[in-house]
Amino acid sequence: MVPSLLATAGGLLLLFSFSSAQIRGDNIAGKCNMNDGFGLYCPTTCGVADYMLRYMPGVDKDLEDLQEQLDIIANLTKEADETAVYMKDSAASAQKSSQPDSHYKKSSSMLDDVARFEKTIVTQEQQIIDLQNIITSNERRMSDLKQLSIQLQQKCSEPCKDSVEIQPLTGTDCQDVANKGATTSGLYYVKPTKATEQFLVYCEIDSFGRGFTVIQRRRDGSVDFHKDWIQYKEGFGYLSPDDTTEFWLGNEKMHLLTATSTIPLVLRIELVDWQGIKKYADYTMFRVAPEVDKYRLTYGYYFGGDAGDAFDGFDFGDDPSDKFYTSHNGMQFSTFDKDNDKYDGNCAEQDGSGWWMNRCHAAHLNGKYYQGGTYTEKDAGEFGYDNGIIWVTWHDRWYSLKETTMKIIPLTRITAGGGQQAGVKQLAGLSKK
Ligand SMILES: [Ca+2]
């Protein structure tokens, strides 16, 4: 840079040295000495001097400007030099600190990455916002769950206690309990006269002061009624204070409740089908014999109801003796392990229940629970007989009922309570379709 500048100014420098000579010559400017040395056709020394003197001021000015510019250039050059030195030093120290090639490549690829990332950042920002919203709602839910978990932990840490409410009143049966002032349906202890100890029953007490002792309940199929002799004897399933469970009170208790009563009892059977229609059937002087007589069922007569008298047997049309062989009055109780039926085979085993089997049945309230009602021979398993919850005088034997209730009440109270009229009204209410 500096040498090339000097090269372009070469001519001027020649003039400079010449003019210096002239400045030197200024001392003799007025008294020019003739000199033959320049020849004939060349300017004389004085002519040159005149010429020089004439252009001298402009040249000097140019030279001064030039000098200034040179100074500026020199300054710039110096600064440039210093910058260069500084940069060289920086480069040197950078080189020392890292491998320049890989560093550069790294930086360059990083710049590419940054550009790419900047693009994706824009689209990802919205996604981030969405995710943040999800996180916020999840956090809220987690907080709710935590709260719930704390509540559960507190609940679980409480000592276990029996929450079933058992009413304090007792009696010989539920009507006795109601007579003593009980007005709420629920669990009560009863002790029939012949019983050696009290036992728990579900009492259905209505607004007429009637107390039904419930001996059987089907409602949702939650309890398997395929049980043996001992289980049917002792009872199974669950008693609940709010009538939400299924059970068989037990043949022994049924015997105790029915055998010792001085007042004739009515067995009321209430049925609900899968359309929610309710029907009932009443039987007077209902009794269950002691175990020595295999808990034989006896009753006086069909006392009414809109479900029909299925206990009396049914003519299925298969055989003239159908009705005779499907009646239940006077039948002993059978289970798969105690065959007391009138059939060569084992009705209780074939139908998977315990019941007062004949050959076999027209009523079968301990049958298999079929969701929805209708079922077929195929559904009935290996024997293929009608084994559902059956009351054939209402629905045929291939229709299994949704709910059943068997309950007992003294005959004197079945239509009593709010008077004869009220009792009749109540019966009408139960039979509504
Ligand atoms: Ca048999």
Automatic annotation (TrEMBL):
Subcellular location as annotated: Secreted
Lineage summary: Eukaryota, Metazoa, Chordata, Craniata, Vertebrata
Gene3D superfamilies: 1.20.5.50, Gamma Fibrinogen, chain A, domain 1, Gamma-fibrinogen Carboxyl Terminal Fragment, domain 2
InterPro entries: FIB_ANG-like, Fibrinogen-like_C, Fibrinogen_a/b/g_C_1, Fibrinogen_a/b/g_C_dom, Fibrinogen_a/b/g_coil_dom, Fibrinogen_CS
Binding partners and assembly: Heterohexamer; disulfide linked. Contains 2 sets of 3 non-identical chains (alpha, beta and gamma). The 2 heterotrimers are in head to head conformation with the N-termini in a small central domain.
Any Gene Ontology CC annotation: fibrinogen complex
Domain of life: Eukaryota
Name this protein carries in UniProt: Fibrinogen C-terminal domain-containing protein
Main location: secreted
Record keywords, A-Z: Blood coagulation, Calcium, Coiled coil, Disulfide bond, Glycoprotein, Hemostasis, Metal-binding, Secreted, Signal
CDD domains, sorted: FReD
The keyword Thylakoid appears for this protein: no
Domain (Fibrinogen C-terminal) ranges: 165-412
A GO term, aspect molecular function: extracellular matrix structural constituent
Signal peptide: 1-21
Gene Ontology biological process: blood coagulation, common pathway; fibrinolysis; platelet aggregation; positive regulation of heterotypic cell-cell adhesion; protein polymerization
